[in-house]
Write a structure and sequence with these properties.
The complex is a heterodimer of chains A (153) and B (231). By secondary structure, chain A is α/β, with parallel strands linked by helices. Chain A is built from four helices and seven strands; from the N terminus they run H-E-E-E-E-H-H-E-E-H-E. In chain A, the strands form two sheets. In chain A, strands 1, 3, 5, 6 and 7 form a five-stranded mixed beta sheet that branches. Chain B is mainly α and 231 residues long. Chain B folds into two domains: 2-83, no CATH class; 100-230, no CATH class. Helix content of chain B is 52%, strand content 6%. Chain B is built from ten helices and three strands; from the N terminus they run H-E-H-E-H-E-H-H-H-H-H-H-H. In chain B, strands 1-2-3 form a three-stranded parallel beta sheet, with helices on both faces. In chain B, helix 4 (100-118) crosses helix 6, helix 5 packs across helix 6 (154-173) and helix 7 packs across helix 8. The longest helix of chain B is centred in the C-terminal third of the chain and has 20 residues, at 154-173. Chain B is globular. The relative contact order of chain B is 0.10. Classes of the chains: A alpha/beta (153), B mainly alpha (231). At the A-B interface, helix 1, strand 4, helix 2, helix 3 and helix 4 of A face helix 1, strand 1, helix 2, helix 3 and helix 6 of B. Strand 7 (147-151) of chain A pairs parallel with strand 1 of chain B, so a sheet runs across the interface.
Chain lengths: 153, 231
Amino acid sequence: MVRLADIPEPERSYMAGLECVPYAHQPLTPAVAPEERHVAIVSSAGLIVRGQRPTLGNDTGYRSIATEVTDSDILCSHVSVNFDRSGFQQDLNVMLPRDRLKELEAEGVIGKAADTHYAFMGATHPDELEDKAREVGRSMLALGVNTVVLAPV
Amino acid sequence: MSGLAHYLEDEGLSTTVVALVREHVAKMSPPRAIWVPFEMGRPFATPNDAALQQRVLKAALALLDEPTSEPLLRDFAEESNDLQGDLSWEFPGRLDAGSVLAEALSVLPVWEKARARTNRTTFGISGFSPETAVEFIQRYLSPDPMPNPKGMAPVSRARFSVDDIKVFYLEAALANGGRPSSFQLNEWFWKQTLAGKMILDFQDAAHLGEDKNLRMIAGSLVPPERTYEYL
C-alpha cells in the first residue's frame, strides 16, 4: 500500500511540500443520468502513441489516444521515476482503463465510452495546463463527451 | 489531476478524479474524487485483474450520482495485494555476465518470448533497438559517443534510452508470467543486472559532470530510493 507516509525520503518530503492551492472559484457541472454519460479518460501519465513526440518536462500539451490505437502502440513518456511502470507494462488498463470503460458501456452502466482518450504530462503546474486543458475540454464537448474520469499516476 | 478537473468543469464537463495522494486531493478539493490505496503508477490497481479495475472505475463514476454542493472525497474500500509479490518468481533466462552488451543480447530472446506471449510491448520511446539503447548509454560520456539520430536532443535520447532499457529488462522478466511485485522486479534489475549498474554509474557521472542538460535529467533516471540504497 502506498500512502504519502510510505514513500521513501527525500521524495516524501518533496511530495508533501508540493504546492496545492485550492481554487477560489469552484466550478461544478451537474452530472447527467448514467445512461446519458459519454465518458472519456484523461491520464496524467505522459502517455503517447508510438511515433509521437515524447512529452518532456514542462510539456503543457496533451496527446489524443484513439480507439484504433493498439495497446502495443501506447507508450509512457512521463518524466518522473517515482511511480511504478511494471503494472502498465503488464496491462494498459492499470493506467488507462479503456477496456473497462467499454465493458461498462456494454453493461449499460454508462451510455458510451469515448472513442478518444487523452494524456497530459502530470509533472506540470496546473496553472500552466489551463490553456490546453480548456482546449481539450472543448474538443471533448464537440465530440459529445459530457463526463471525464481523471486518472493520475 | 485536480487542476485539470477544475478547468474541465468550468468548460462544462462533469469530472471524477481517481486520486493516489490523498493529502493533495484533499487540499485541492475537486468536485468529486475517490482516493485509492494503491501503488503510485497503478491507479486502477492490479494488472490483469479486470474485476478489481472495474470496481475502481464504478466507484469513481458512482460519485456522479451523489448530490454535490460541497466537494466529495471518498475512500475506495478495497486494497490490492500487489506488494505481496511472488516468491516463486525468478528471471526466466540466463544472463550473460560478460559485458552489458552481452547481457542485453542474452535478454533479447527472453524479451521476444514475452512479446509473443502478450502481443504487446511498451518498448520503443528512444527509437533504438534494445542493444543500441544500451550502447548509446555506454558510450554517451566516452570519447567516442554514438551519433544521435535527428529528431531528439542527445540528452533526451539518453533519458529515453534509459527508460527503454528498463522496459526491455522488466518485460523480459515477465516472459513466463507470474506476479512479482514491483519491488521484486526493481531489486532484481538494480542489484543483479549489469544494465542496472550501468545506469547507476551513468547517473553518478551525469550528476558530477559539466553537462548542465545532463545534470538536469540525472534525477529522472533512477528511482530515488534506489539511488540512496545502492550507490
